[in-house]
Structures are given as structure tokens and as C-alpha cells.
């Protein structure tokens, strides 16, 4: 596996071509759920048009993977809200993502992976049985564990030894994760401190900063869905800490307690920093 991953890294670093079959649209810098970007602060992209690509486009998955490989930040739908995403192990891409969000680097972001093998490769999760994971994932749950040595980007949640890992229950982002083969840093598609978004028009102020926007339509109608994923710390065998209730708190707690994980005290050793994850 390490040889395959190393070869893919070389291919990723040398890749420059992007499939361009898409529709370009002029960016409207108004409305939505985030503040207007001014003074050219666009996270490193200054073009006036961006690609708006329907996820039903036959080339959309490959286009998304190619953009991630080339270090771009993209927007795409998940099983909860729209997210902005980039390669988690690309230092420049992570810095660009934080700039686009207007987010402090000490507020952590989660990663998205394709399957349990990836979860265990990028995170220290050998103490979590597959039977437990199957009852939570794919789904609207972010599982926090300690980073593995393979997740070595110094700009990804600096100073924090843990990482939130998602396997969304949404075919498009799952297929993109599988095509990309590497962890995808993922956070909500909105300016920091603004509400999460359920359609692409709600984050128009970010379009001009992105390599592409992948449009999956309206993701839901309720404010409850904007609560995003449930975040639970399972880094310690036998204990859990619910960091954010999100949309699936009761189900998540019920599952982990059936596997003899019990609530942890939020003492001095607890890591409350992970509540920035979407």
C-alpha cells in the first residue's frame, strides 16, 4: 500500500491538466449566508468566473478529484450541508482553505475518507470495532481519533493531536473520495461564524475563491439540517465525549454505549478544540 500511495503522491504533484468540460458563470458577490469578500481577498484566485458543475455531469467526479490533486479548493454537497474541501496533506491547499473561510488556523477541520481502511490508515482507530463503525458510517457523524503518522501536514490543525474523520452518506462526495484516494479536508461552505448552507446560492460570496462549485441542488429545507454532523471523540478506548450534538446525537450515543463506551469527564485533559468541525 505504501508503494502505491508514494507513486500516487508523485503523480499528484506533477499533475497540471484539469478536465474543463463545465459551465462558467459570473460570480455574484451578494446575499447568501456569508459576508462579502472585498479588496481582492479571494484565497489566491483572482479570476472573475468559476466553474459551476452539476454533480450529475458524467465528468464531475473526475474533475473534482483532478482539482483536489492540483491543490485547488472546491465546494461540494455532503449528506448534511455544502462543504469546501481540499487535499488534507497539501500545506498550500490547507492555507488557502483557511483564507477562503476567514477562519483562524487553531479552529480545526475534519477530513473525509472513502472507507474504514482509510479511516484506520489516517487515524489511530484500531480500538474501534468494524461493527461499531458500520452502525455510524457512512453517515452524518464525525469520529475524532488521534492522527496517524501518515497525516503529516503541519498546517492541518496545528498543535492538535486529534483529527475528526467523516465518511459521508452521499454518493458524490464518497465517489470523489474514492477517486482522489487521499484524505480530503472538509469544512462547511460559509464564512467563519456564519450559518451552514443548503444550496450553492447561499455561499455565492465564496465562489470567486474556488476552483469549482459542484452543485447538488437543495440539500434540505430545515434549520435542523444546518446543525451539520454529530462530532464524537472516540480517541480513548471505552470512553466518549460528545463534542457537538449535530443531527445524529442520540443515535450516535446509543450506538457507542452498546459497545461499552461511556461518557468521559470533561476535565483538564479533554480536547474541546475539535468543536470547529463541520
What does this structure look like?
By secondary structure, this protein is of the alpha/beta class. Helices cover 26% and strands 21% of the residues. The protein is built from eight helices and 13 strands. Strands 1, 2, 3, 4, 5, 6, 7, 8, 9, 10, 11, 12 and 13 form a 13-stranded mixed β-sheet that branches. A hairpin with a 5-residue loop joins strand 11 and strand 12. The longest helix has 13 residues, at 2-14. The radius of gyration is 18 Å and the shape is globular. It starts with a helix and ends in a 15-residue tail after the last strand. The model is unreliable at 1-32, 35-48 and 267-272 (pLDDT under 50).
Entry summary:
It is built from 8 helices and 13 strands.
Structural classification: alpha/beta
- Based on CA inertia axes, which overall geometry fits? globular
Average predicted local confidence, pLDDT: 83
Q: What is the oligomeric state here?
A: single chain
- How many runs of DSSP E, i.e. beta strands? 13
Percent helix, as a range, is 25-40%
- Residue windows where pLDDT falls under 50 for at least 5 positions: 1-32, 35-48, 267-272
Output the helix-strand order: HEEHEEHEHEHEEHEHEEEHE
The fraction of residues assigned to DSSP E strands is 15-25%
Our measurement of the CA-to-CA distance between the termini, rounded to an integer number of angstroms, reads 30 Å
Number of DSSP helices? 8
User: Mind describing the biggest β-sheet?
Assistant: 13 strands, mixed
**Rg, nearest Å:** 18 Å
Amino acid at each position: 500500500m505504501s508503494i502505491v500511495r508514494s507513486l500516487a503522491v508523485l503523480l499528484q504533484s506533477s499533475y497540471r491538466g484539469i478536465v474543463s468540460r463545465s459551465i462558467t458563470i459570473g460570480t455574484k458577490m451578494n446575499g447568501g449566508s456569508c459576508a462579502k469578500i472585498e479588496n481582492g481577498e479571494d484565497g489566491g484566485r483572482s479570476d472573475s468566473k468559476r466553474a459551476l458543475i452539476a454533480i450529475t455531469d458524467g465528468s464531475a467526479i473526475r474533475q473534482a478529484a483532478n482539482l483536489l490533486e492540483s491543490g485547488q479548493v472546491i465546494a461540494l454537497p455532503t449528506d448534511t450541508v455544502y462543504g469546501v474541501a481540499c487535499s488534507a496533506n497539501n500545506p498550500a491547499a490547507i492555507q488557502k482553505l483557511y483564507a477562503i473561510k476567514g477562519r483562524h488556523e487553531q479552529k480545526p477541520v475534519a477530513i473525509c475518507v472513502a472507507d474504514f481502511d482509510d479511516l484506520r490508515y489516517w487515524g489511530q482507530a484500531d480500538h474501534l470495532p468494524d461493527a461499531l463503525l458500520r452502525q455510524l458510517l457512512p453517515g452524518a457523524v464525525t469520529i475524532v481519533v488521534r492522527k496517524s503518522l501518515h497525516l503529516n501536514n503541519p498546517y492541518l490543525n496545528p498543535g492538535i493531536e486529534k483529527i475528526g474523520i467523516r465518511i459521508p452518506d452521499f454518493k458524490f462526495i464518497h465517489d470523489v473520495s474514492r477517486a482522489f484516494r487521499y484524505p480530503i479536508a472538509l469544512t462547511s461552505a460559509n464564512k467563519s461564524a456564519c450559518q451552514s448552507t443548503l444550496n450553492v446560492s447561499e455561499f455565492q460570496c465564496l465562489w470567486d475563491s474556488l476552483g469549482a462549485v459542484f452543485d447538488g441542488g437543495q440539500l434540505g429545507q430545515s434549520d435542523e439540517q444546518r446543525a451539520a454532523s454529530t462530532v464524537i471523540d472516540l480517541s480513548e478506548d471505552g470512553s466518549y465525549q460528545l463534542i457537538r450534538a449535530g443531527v445524529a446525537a442520540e443515535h450516535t450515543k446509543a450506538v457507542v454505549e452498546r459497545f461499552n463506551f461511556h461518557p468521559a469527564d470533561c476535565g483538564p485533559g479533554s480536547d474541546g478544540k475539535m468543536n470547529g468541525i463541520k
